[in-house]
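Input for the complex:
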Amino acid sequence: MLLVNTIRENFEQVLEGLQKRNFPHAEAALHQVLELDKKRKETQTERDNLQAESNSIAKEIGMLMKSGKKEEAEKIKSRTSEIKSQVKLLEDAYNNIEEDLKQILYTLPNVPHYSVPKGKSADDNEIVLEHGSIPELHADKLPHWELIKKYDIIDFDLGVKIAGAGFPVYKGRGARLQRALINFFLDEAMKAGYIEVQPPILVNEDSGYGTGQLPDKEGQMYEATADKLYLIPTAEVPITNMYRDVILNEAEFPIKNVGYTPCFRREAGSWGAHVRGLNRLHQFDKVEIVQIVHPDRSYDALEDMSSYVQGLLQKLELPYRVLRLCGGDMGFTSALTYDMEVYSAAQERWLEVSSVSNFETYQANRLKLRFKGEDKKTQLAHTLNGSALALPRIVASILENNQTEDGIKMPKVLVPYLGFDMI
RNA sequence: AGAGGAGUGGCAGAGUGGUCGAUUGCGGCGGUCUUGAAAACCGUUGUACCGCGAGGUACCGGGGGUUCGAAUCCCUCCUCCUCUGCCA
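Predicted:
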């Protein structure tokens, strides 16, 4: 969440940022934050003073008791009841104010980076670059949902039977392709200096709040209600939360983690024309990269991650483009996001396969993720993450783009992992 | 899952109602000594909030309670250890 200090010191800038996101009533909300914070401080001062008085009386009584002056001690005791009830009142007031403040702050999205374009929807995103050429296929080309049937590599009906729509069963060479991609992505990340982790795929409430899935987006996560746990929508949640309530040493930067996990998304109400086949699922596989860095370095790290992801797409020989998301299309917690989209030649559409974001201190503030610098001061770190990569749409575009009359050609880099070069 | 035990500062480990944010040791940082280093000695060493500052407040697993006063007593939750049970 946003820092109150930032709102106070850079009011105009924050306001502009929220407006870029088309956040309604931004100015009123920001004023309310400042007002509540002011009230919070006043209440704290008042409460602390009374508490100090109460503490000193308690000490006095302690001394009197020790020196055996019980009657005097009893006399003083009567003075405390009034202070005590007042402290209680102020304490409650303080807690209420703080809670109200937190509630408003939770509703405020991150302030976009200055380079983020204005805009309302995906149509306003800025195309940063395009790479690769779009393959020309025969007129009888098939979309991937036909291809998977033709070659019997992914079975949606079977998934429906055992779980429901959006839970495909990968079979034979389809399953092998999944495993190959996961291994390829993990190996590449390790070469790039990321430390692999295998986190839990169920997380508690604190973790949900830490990375910003809660309180807003409960509906997007599957819940194990009996144990108050959530199935992760992305490995970002467990991996970033490893660093919740942590004070790092500046020397430990940059922290680079990679993890493969299944991801679960309820995607309630979002089924429609463009979500056939692998385009949108309730369960899918993803390899995620996370970086925790010094605030001065976070935009370099973002560019780093962006070119790393592009490198993967190049190795997979997929045509792609990079978008800088506009204010209206950006995720709630992000300051700057690049989306990578691959071209799926039979659907004749661009498909998002990665989203790389810098959250600056937005997540770190919730996570209490700090570091101690050379000057011995603790300050918030910057967090970043990106998909590297999400599998289903990669699979969709590999299948569609590489289809031939003799079968589907596999990208060269995957052949050692697959043990075959054609499906 | 049942019975018992335990959770204290970076780590180890005292403290069972009063002046304890907390003895001590190790580690870390600074210094003295030394050509340099080690050893020894001296000092220093948590986080957050409020305050220009002096200083104040809170935190001894989390939350709640008793008390003038809680690390210490009570309730509850979490975690870990031991034994029993179950299980990949």
